[in-house]
Write a structure and sequence with these properties.
heterodimer; A: mainly alpha; rod-shaped; B: mainly alpha
């Protein structure tokens, strides 16, 4: 009986470790990519980027107008 | 249109970096994990800063040689843009370090080098503001500028390469990563470098033209 329990415990330890996954595998945002929420971040980034470019283009236009008036 | 093509290129490349940099797969490296993607956002800040300071010191030399105020203005505005990007690099680096190394500041040789480099350029601005005569200001600033770029090279490239650093790849030669890094990184990191440098030049261009409008007589 005791031997049986020991073997069970050893095996359970082994299996729980196996469930923990490959220790050599590097953790990446796999889930994040799967459930698609990463696209939300990309959307936010693109929005901010578009805003910055919009601002730059507006300054660009304003300067261009001033440059025209000066010459 | 012909004058704007590089600004359009800059915007398109940045769009690629903001979407591809997040969505395209990157090699799985222990400890770095997904934070390796900062290679497309944090690292280029320093490329922009170094490019700006390099061009600035070249125009400083040009000013000393030909004594044209136009060159001095180019030199000064490139320092302004370089400092802005340097501060962004410092901030993003500290945010990253806070997560990856446990503290925003850990006296890493590259951190200290970059901080000293930024301080040298802050002193450049102080120097400029402390001289009343514009011509004297420009000459002093140009001499100091050339000196501070000469200091930047050992601070950012030579000294950190001789110390153990928390930064990955510091023990290799400067710029070695550009051709040794994984191809999956390179398809993003090299366009990222070009895109961010173009953005820096774009901001410089706006500042320079504003100066020109403020003081058209200096540009004849």
């Amino acid at each position: 009986m005791n031997y049986f329990l020991t073997i069970c415990l050893l095996l359970s330890g082994y299996f729980s470790k196996a469930q923990g996954g490959n220790p050599n595998k590097v953790e990446m945002a796999d889930v994040l990519h799967q459930n698609g929420k990463i696209y939300l971040v990309v959307l936010v980034l693109v929005t901010i980027f578009a805003g910055i470019i919009f601002l730059l283009v507006r300054i660009e236009r304003k300067l261009h107008k001033l440059e025209k008036n000066h010459s | 249109m012909a004058r704007y093509w590089w600004k359009i290129l800059c915007a398109l490349l940045l769009l690629y970096i903001f979407t591809g940099g997040i969505l395209l797969p990157v090699p799985a490296i222990p400890k770095l994990n997904e934070s390796a993607r900062n290679l497309f956002y944090h690292v280029p800040m320093w490329y922009v800063m170094i490019t700006c300071f390099l061009v600035s010191s070249i125009y400083g030399l040009k000013f000393l040689r030909h004594n044209r105020m136009k060159d001095d203005i180019v030199s000064r505005e490139f320092v302004n843009v370089g400092i802005a990007f340097g501060c962004l690099g410092m901030l993003t680096g500290m945010e990253w370090a806070n997560i990856a190394w446990g503290a925003p500041w850990s006296n890493d040789p590259k951190q200290v080098g970059a901080a000293l480099c930024l301080l040298t350029y802050f002193a450049y601005l102080v120097l400029r503001n402390s001289v009343k005569d514009p011509n004297k200001e420009a000459r002093l600033a140009a001499v100091y500028n050339v000196f501070s770029f000469a200091l930047l090279v050992p601070l950012l490239f030579i000294i950190p390469a001789h110390f153990k650093s928390l930064h990955p790849g510091t023990d290799s030669k400067p710029f070695e990563a550009l051709y040794t890094q994984a191809a999956a990184f390179r398809t993003l990191s090299i366009p990222a470098m070009v895109a961010w440098i173009l953005l820096g030049v774009w901001i410089f261009d706006l500042r320079y033209r504003t100066r020109k409008l403020e003081n058209p007589t200096l540009f004849i």
